[in-house]
Amino acid sequence: MTPPKKLVEINEVLHIITYPKNVAEIGVARSKKLTELGIKGIYDYGPLFVEGLRVLGKGHSSIVLLAKHESIGDVAVKIRRTDSKKDSLFREGYLMTLDRFGVMPKVHYFDDDLIIMEFIDGVTLGKYLRTNDVKGATLLKLIMNVLTAAYKLDLNLIDHLELANPYKHIFILKDMEVKIIDFESAKVSENPCNLCRIVSYLTNLLRISKQSNMEVMLKKYKSGCRDSFQDILTSLTSVMAQLNGISV
Ligand SMILES: Nc1ncnc2c1ncn2[C@@H]1O[C@H](COP(=O)(O)OP(=O)(O)OP(=O)(O)O)[C@@H](O)[C@H]1O
Ligand SMILES: [Mg+2]
Known about the structure:
Blueprint: E1 6-8, H1 14-17, H2 24-36, E2 39-44, E3 48-50, E4 53-55, E5 57-58, E6 62-69, E7 73-80, H3 90-96, E8 107-110, E9 114-118, E10 123-124, H4 125-131, H5 136-155, E11 158-159, E12 170-172, E13 178-180, E14 187-188, H6 194-205, H7 212-222, H8 228-244
Helix pairs in contact: 5-6, 5-8, 7-8
């Protein structure tokens, strides 16, 4: 059973919204902005514990909190760390608004210091594989959904650039829906190949040797022939099915 989420007033967590420097002036300004944007409080909730509060995540550039919005409900708030090397989250927030296929968290607001977005209530691909005994048809479905999400990013002309090791950027939701997060390094590109990185990663992980026809198909896909996606999907899933002894 999921533990109840405890709501905390923003003013009680000024040290978190200005982590790690804890600057009073910035805290007051950020708190005022969050309140004006409709944030009613911060939940003490998430897999990580930072200075007295559970949070959804902590990266090099940000802290991510679960918050209560007055009209939207639960939202994730990505707040720029006060020691971040990046001077803004604006580009990342903007890029996420370009999503046409629903593979990224929906963005409600963004500026230099904040991104208010959809809370992704799922687990990372890494955790999903570690904690569920995924095999057979379920594994096939998972792989298909992950590949399809990467393909959708490609169709959207967005290169994530951090999917070579996608363990922590790919989230698996209930019903095995896939969402991709953290577009900090992402860029708009004429010919992205998120799919290529995921295929390489998966073939390594599952110890499937990349057959020569796969290399040809990926090359074709990379050169812009997006129709090859179906062939890549069919080829990869049938190799996996053979390994698992199931029919597709
Ligand atoms: N929309 C969201 N819903 C739920 N959890 C999220 C969401 N966005 C981010 N997180 C959690 O917060 C963590 C940090 O987020 P993110 O990777 O975007 O931050 P970052 O500062 O860019 O991190 P890094 O330095 O690792 O790149 C994620 O790994 C994830 O667990
Ligand atoms: Mg990042």
